[in-house]
Amino acid sequence: MRVPDGMSDAEAKQKQDDLNTYAEGNGFHLAIVFYEYVPGAQSAFTELVEAVRRAGAKQVVVPSYRELALNRSLQDAMLTHLFYATGGAVVVSLEDGS
Protein backbone atom coordinates (compact mmCIF):
# COMPACT_ATOMS: atom_id res chain seq x y z
CA MET A 1 0.00 0.00 0.00
CA ARG A 2 1.20 3.49 -0.75
CA VAL A 3 2.06 5.66 2.21
CA PRO A 4 2.38 9.26 1.02
CA ASP A 5 4.22 11.88 3.10
CA GLY A 6 0.99 13.43 4.38
CA MET A 7 -0.58 10.17 5.59
CA SER A 8 -0.84 9.89 9.36
CA ASP A 9 0.08 6.73 11.24
CA ALA A 10 -3.61 6.34 12.13
CA GLU A 11 -4.62 6.44 8.44
CA ALA A 12 -1.97 3.86 7.52
CA LYS A 13 -3.10 1.62 10.38
CA GLN A 14 -6.73 1.95 9.28
CA LYS A 15 -5.82 0.84 5.75
CA GLN A 16 -4.01 -2.18 7.15
CA ASP A 17 -6.92 -2.96 9.48
CA ASP A 18 -9.28 -2.84 6.49
CA LEU A 19 -7.09 -5.37 4.67
CA ASN A 20 -7.08 -7.65 7.72
CA THR A 21 -10.85 -7.37 8.11
CA TYR A 22 -11.40 -8.30 4.45
CA ALA A 23 -9.02 -11.25 4.67
CA GLU A 24 -10.57 -12.64 7.85
CA GLY A 25 -14.11 -12.12 6.58
CA ASN A 26 -13.37 -14.02 3.38
CA GLY A 27 -11.46 -16.96 4.83
CA PHE A 28 -8.01 -15.75 3.77
CA HIS A 29 -4.79 -15.30 5.68
CA LEU A 30 -3.15 -11.91 5.25
CA ALA A 31 0.49 -12.93 5.08
CA ILE A 32 2.23 -9.59 4.55
CA VAL A 33 1.53 -5.96 3.75
CA PHE A 34 3.93 -4.22 1.39
CA TYR A 35 4.46 -0.49 1.89
CA GLU A 36 5.59 1.95 -0.77
CA TYR A 37 6.86 5.26 0.64
CA VAL A 38 8.40 6.83 -2.48
CA PRO A 39 5.92 8.39 -4.94
CA GLY A 40 6.08 6.64 -8.31
CA ALA A 41 8.34 3.86 -7.07
CA GLN A 42 7.52 0.22 -7.73
CA SER A 43 9.96 -1.62 -5.47
CA ALA A 44 7.17 -2.82 -3.17
CA PHE A 45 5.24 -4.11 -6.20
CA THR A 46 8.31 -6.04 -7.35
CA GLU A 47 8.65 -7.55 -3.87
CA LEU A 48 4.93 -8.37 -3.89
CA VAL A 49 5.15 -10.23 -7.21
CA GLU A 50 8.08 -12.30 -5.92
CA ALA A 51 6.34 -13.12 -2.64
CA VAL A 52 3.13 -14.13 -4.41
CA ARG A 53 5.10 -16.30 -6.82
CA ARG A 54 7.04 -18.02 -4.01
CA ALA A 55 3.93 -18.64 -1.91
CA GLY A 56 1.74 -19.71 -4.80
CA ALA A 57 -0.89 -17.23 -3.63
CA LYS A 58 -3.84 -16.61 -5.91
CA GLN A 59 -5.23 -13.37 -4.51
CA VAL A 60 -3.79 -9.97 -3.65
CA VAL A 61 -5.87 -7.38 -1.77
CA VAL A 62 -5.31 -3.64 -2.12
CA PRO A 63 -7.21 -0.76 -0.53
CA SER A 64 -7.76 0.58 -4.08
CA TYR A 65 -6.23 0.16 -7.53
CA ARG A 66 -4.68 3.59 -7.00
CA GLU A 67 -2.28 1.84 -4.62
CA LEU A 68 -0.71 0.31 -7.73
CA ALA A 69 -0.61 3.47 -9.86
CA LEU A 70 -2.61 6.64 -10.43
CA ASN A 71 -2.92 6.04 -14.18
CA ARG A 72 -5.49 3.40 -15.23
CA SER A 73 -3.32 2.17 -18.12
CA LEU A 74 -0.41 1.56 -15.77
CA GLN A 75 -2.74 -0.14 -13.27
CA ASP A 76 -3.91 -2.50 -16.04
CA ALA A 77 -0.32 -3.24 -17.05
CA MET A 78 0.63 -4.02 -13.46
CA LEU A 79 -2.40 -6.27 -12.98
CA THR A 80 -1.54 -8.13 -16.18
CA HIS A 81 2.10 -8.50 -15.14
CA LEU A 82 1.11 -9.81 -11.71
CA PHE A 83 -1.30 -12.32 -13.25
CA TYR A 84 1.21 -13.76 -15.72
CA ALA A 85 4.29 -13.56 -13.48
CA THR A 86 2.55 -15.48 -10.69
CA GLY A 87 0.61 -18.05 -12.65
CA GLY A 88 -2.79 -16.46 -12.23
CA ALA A 89 -2.94 -14.30 -9.09
CA VAL A 90 -5.67 -11.68 -9.21
CA VAL A 91 -6.10 -8.39 -7.35
CA VAL A 92 -9.12 -7.46 -5.25
CA SER A 93 -9.72 -3.78 -4.54
CA LEU A 94 -11.53 -3.01 -1.29
CA GLU A 95 -12.68 0.30 -2.73
CA ASP A 96 -14.19 -1.22 -5.85
CA GLY A 97 -15.26 -4.50 -4.29
CA SER A 98 -13.62 -6.37 -7.20
UniProtKB/TrEMBL annotation:
Protein's recorded name: Recombinase family protein
Organism encoding this protein: Streptomyces stephensoniae
